[in-house]
Prior knowledge:
Blueprint: E1 4-7, H1 15-30, E2 36-39, H2 46-54, E3 57-60, E4 74-77, H3 84-92, E5 96-99, H4 103-117, E6 121-125, H5 131-139, E7 144-147, H6 150-156, E8 163-167, H7 173-186, E9 190-193, E10 196-198, E11 202-204, H8 210-213, H9 216-224, E12 228-232, H10 238-250, E13 254-257, E14 273-278, H11 284-298
Parallel strand pairs: 1-14, 2-3, 2-4, 4-5, 6-7, 6-8, 8-11, 12-13, 12-14
Antiparallel strand pairs: 9-10
Amino acid sequence: MKKTVTIDKHSGFCWGVVRTVQIAEQTLKNFADENIYVLGHIIHNPKEIERLEREGLRTITVKDFESLANTNAKVIVRAHGEPPETYRQALKYGIEIIDATCPVVTKLQERVRKFYDLGYQIVVFGKKDHAEVLGVRGVCNDECIVISKLHQAETEVDITKKTVLFSQTTMDRPTFLEIKKLLQEKVQELIVDEMQTIATEFHAKDTICGQVSGREQDLAEFAKQQDIMVFVAGRASSNGKVLFDVAKQANPRTYFIEDINELHSEWFNNVTTVGISGATSTPQWHMEYVKSVIEDLSE
């Protein structure tokens, strides 16, 4: 049976990832004879990491700074950003930082710092040890509450304090809105004793990246039109998990793969349309490769 395999036209790199990868490629080109490093995986996609490593990009951590001291090392800060301490360590060891932080993440850090300086309790909807959240924690001296579930908003947030809610840029908006609603109901004027009233404030800043949330409706519609869906992403990708769940909900016959060796020929039995989509960190060239493999399986 002949299969039609289609790549979701709304999938592929978001502009922030495009920018980061372009900065890495240009740095490798401009300083071809020098050692170029990146702090952590440049994006959460192993195939793109492997491609850039073949071009000469080396992955390190802050712990490696001391060994690179005064070697004219150039270190790229990836799209997820870094806490202020990373920049202080780079200055200490004479390392040149090339900042490829996604502007959306930079803006998030700036807003967190602003409200922290104003004395607000900072609540972040995200994953505590995610690279982006580590950067956010750094700009407020790690004096914040990181939650990933609705029940944590009920048990871990001090509702007597003026509070601002932010989100890691790649989290799902429905859960963010549930947390926002709960805190709006709880963080309010409270009577502390008969002589004193403390007025508390609550602000919610929707800092989920539009490049992620904006794809959800288009992805759901695309998935519904296919007999099966193959979602291609790195397993460490937060937005990959979010978008895969969107596709899975729209089409239960949605399969997650990181590489072609995870494809199963029986998935494609008795189907005529196969859709391929991916995370904002999934390169177009890799989805094209997956498409060609599926087309070969279909013959």
